[in-house]
Task: structure prediction
Amino acid sequence: MIVLLPWTATNGSWRLRHAVHFVAVHFVAMTTALTPRRLAELYTDLGHQVLSHTDPTGAFGAIASVAVGTIPGTQMASITRGLGEAFVTAASTDDAALAADLLQYELNSGPCVDAVVRDSVFASGDLRSDARWNEFGPRAFESVGVVSVLSIRMVVEGGDLSAGVNLYSREADAFTDSSLTVGMLLATHGALAMAGVLARERAANLERALTSNREIGMAMGILMATYKVNRDQAFDLLRIASQNSNRKLSTIASDVVDTGTLSFPDHSPRGQAAMS
Result:
C-alpha cells in the first residue's frame, strides 16, 4: 500500500480534499506499468539526484527531469516557485513549458498559479475549451501547442518555500489517474528531498556567516593592537578599506588576519603617477 494525497474530481480538476499529505492507494488499482519495485527505484533515484545538488535550482531541475521520464503522459515539465505575490520558473525541461509558465504569470491565471496559491492540484485535458482559464488556455495552445496540463502543489516542510510541479502535453486528455498517482508521489518525495537541500543550504550560509564574523572580529583585534584604536574605530578602518578598494569587508578582514596589516589604495599624486 502506498501513501498519497487525497483528491476529488471537480469540474474537470483534481482538488485537495483536506490539508493532509496522504491517502492510501493500492498498487493493484493503479493502471500503470510501474511495479512497486520499479516505483521505489525511481524515487530512490529521485532522492539521490535532488540531494546531489547543493542549490535549490539544481534540485528543482532534477525533479522536473524525473517527472518527464516517470509520469505517464508527460512530454515536458517545469517547477513554479512563489516569491511573495510573484512567480518564477525555477526549472523547466523545454522552452514550451517555460513559455506556458510565463504566460500564466503574466495573466496571473492558470493551473500552475492556482495550484501554488490555492495549495491544490489542477488538471485540464483540453486547455483550448477549458472555461476556467479561457484566456490562458487558447493562448497557450496557439503559442506553444500545449493542450493538457497537470499542476501539483509541492509542500516543503520546515520552510516558507511555495512551489508546484507542472506537467504539460501537446496531446488531449494526456493525464490519467495513474499520472495523478505517480505525479503526487513525485511531488511529495521531491518536496521531502528539497527540504533536505534547503536545510543544507541554510547550514552552509550560517557557517559562512559565522566564519566571516569570526574573521572580522580577529581583524578588528589586530587593528586595535596595531593602531591603538577602539573597536568602533577598528571596524571603521575595515569599512574604509572595503569602500576604497571595492572589495567585501569580509575579504578585507581575511587579508588582515592572514597578513597582520591593512592596506589602503594609494590615491596620492605620486601613487597616481606610478600607476600611469
In short: Residues 1-32, 268-276 have pLDDT under 50 and may be disordered. The radius of gyration is 26 Å. Residues 85 and 117 are 9 Å apart (CA to CA).
